[in-house]
Design goal:
Blueprint lengths: L2 H4 L3 E3 L1 H23 L2 H7 L19 H18 L3 H17 L7 H13 L10 H6 L1 E7 H21 L3 H5 L4 H4 L10 H4 L3 H23 L1 H21 L5 H8 L6 H14 L10 E5 L5 H17 L11 H4 L14 E11 L5 E3 L8 H7 L3 H17 L5 E11 L5 E2 L31
Parallel strand pairs: 2-3
Antiparallel strand pairs: 1-2, 4-5, 4-6, 6-7
Helix pairs in contact: 2-4, 2-14, 4-5, 5-6, 6-8, 8-12, 12-13, 13-14
């Protein structure tokens, strides 16, 4: 098959329509869940200071209007699910959801990044070709859509899984069973298996190796029709088990629902027929014309753009190779690379405010400025430490202190190793600027973690 012939292929629109509906419903539920648990107030409104992403310092919580932002995000997700003004709805969802995730770096999770990427990709896909209110408004639906539009969703899902598997190819995960050797024993209270398995070394290694093999193999097992049903069973078992073991929110359910797109159109047509049967009393009074193929107006530029999007997704996780030092220690290039639950890292950072001329100093009580969750996140991540140091410097300068310098004494433990000095305590962090350059003030790692 040639490159040109592939992009001229069409397939039934049902899988993408079902994916759109499930995606929108889950995202709406996620926003409601966030509100219900009080996390909007706890994470975005209560803190005196919010950690930002480099280049996005202008993205800030909106005070009480943050609730309105969540309402907009939830409503746009519902509009996506029902296919009402789909293009505007998915753009609104992408912008509002991504803004929420950029408001405070302490809330970073790989699956939030995945949702932003998927929402961005969906802007360019005809996900409302079937099973949408847009069909009623324009009085037409489409039987088929370009095959690559569904394959694009599969590819993004495959990247998430496969790169997560590649990240597990390291000596801590495979040879030391870390950090599962730390986490699993804490689940001793699980029924049936808590007391019998969680403390067993063989089980901890089995979980590490099976997790790696699952992530590497599952995209290919889902793509291959003879193994697809078995692969989906593995997806359900794996994500339900990880949900029981770890507090990772909706991510398992998002991934279970998303992998349904790997099934053939016939499966999704049955889902659509079931939905239509449920809402049979809401049949439209006007006829909807079904056209054969959905065609893009600007096909070549769009395909080129989506191609560049995926080239970036394939390359970006490897940016850590541009930095010296151990990735798990420095975390330079760690985020946005599908490194899921690979390390147990804790730290304590004590900040000292010094008058450069007199030498007078005092120590900062982090609880005066940070929530417990923020302090925990800040203690072991160098970009957090630097941003907080600048916040402290600005704060005490504004209070009238002269010649302010900010030093930190930081100790970090990584994957069960003894706590070690983390930041050069002789460096005035108030004079250091955030950039893409390596952070020379991170002290060397005293061990070696082999792998990707």
């Amino acid at each position: 098959m040639t490159f040109k012939s592939y992009f001229n292929q069409y397939t039934n629109a049902a899988p993408l329509a079902v994916f759109r509906m499930l995606f929108g419903l889950m995202m709406c539920y996620g926003m409601i869940r966030f509100w219900y648990h009080g996390w909007i107030d706890t994470l975005y409104i209560q803190p005196k200071f919010n950690f930002t992403y480099f280049g996005f310092e202008w993205v800030k919580p909106l005070g009480n209007y943050t609730y309105l932002l969540f309402i907009i995000c939830a409503l746009s997700a519902i509009f996506v699910a029902i296919g009402l003004k789909y293009r505007l709805a998915i753009i609104t969802f992408f912008l509002s959801f991504t803004y929420i995730e950029l408001m405070d770096k302490t809330t970073y999770l790989n699956h939030y990044y995945f949702i932003s990427l998927m929402a961005f990709l969906m802007i360019f896909l005809p996900a409302n070709a079937q099973l949408s209110i847009d069909n009623l408004i324009r009085k037409r639906s489409y039987q088929n859509i370009p095959k690559w539009t569904i394959d694009a969703v599969k590819l993004l899902l495959g990247i998430v899984y496969f790169y997560a598997g590649l990240a597990k190819l390291n000596s801590d995960w495979l040879l030391q069973a870390m950090p599962l050797k730390i986490w699993l024993p804490s689940k001793y209270d699980l029924p049936l298996i808590g007391d019998t398995l969680m403390h067993q070394t063989w089980f901890q290694y089995a979980m590490s190796w099976s997790g790696m093999l699952y992530d590497l193999a599952i995209p290919f097992l889902l793509l291959y029709k003879p193994t697809r049903r078995f692969a989906f069973l593995l997806v359900v078992i794996f994500h339900v088990f990880t949900r029981v073991l770890f507090p990772i929110g909706m991510f398992p359910f998002v991934m279970i629902a998303s992998t349904l797109i790997f099934f053939e159109a016939g499966f999704h047509k049955k889902i659509i027929r079931l939905i239509k049967d449920v809402f049979q009393n809401l049949k439209p009074s006007t006829l909807i014309a079904t056209q054969s193929n959905y065609k893009y107006t600007f096909k070549k530029p769009l395909v080129a753009f989506i191609g560049l999007f995926f080239v970036f997704q394939l390359a970006f996780p490897f940016r850590y190779l541009l930095y010296p030092g151990e990735l798990f220690w420095t975390e330079e290039g760690y985020r946005f690379s599908w490194r899921v639950m690979l390390m147990e890292k804790m730290g304590i950072s004590t900040f000292k405010i010094v008058d450069a001329k007199t030498g007078n100093f005092f120590y900062v009580d982090n609880k005066d400025f940070l929530t417990p969750f923020q302090e925990k996140q800040m203690g072991s991540q160098p970009d957090f430490i630097l941003e907080y140091a600048h916040y402290l410097g600005d704060h005490f300068t504004a209070q009238g202190h002269k010649n302010v310098q900010v030093f930190v004494e930081s100790y970090v433990t990584l994957n069960g190793r003894l706590s070690a000095p983390y930041i050069d305590k002789t460096v005035d962090l108030y004079q250091e600027k955030e950039s893409f350059k390596p952070k020379h003030w991170i002290l060397p790692f005293n061990d070696d973690i082999k792998g990707l």
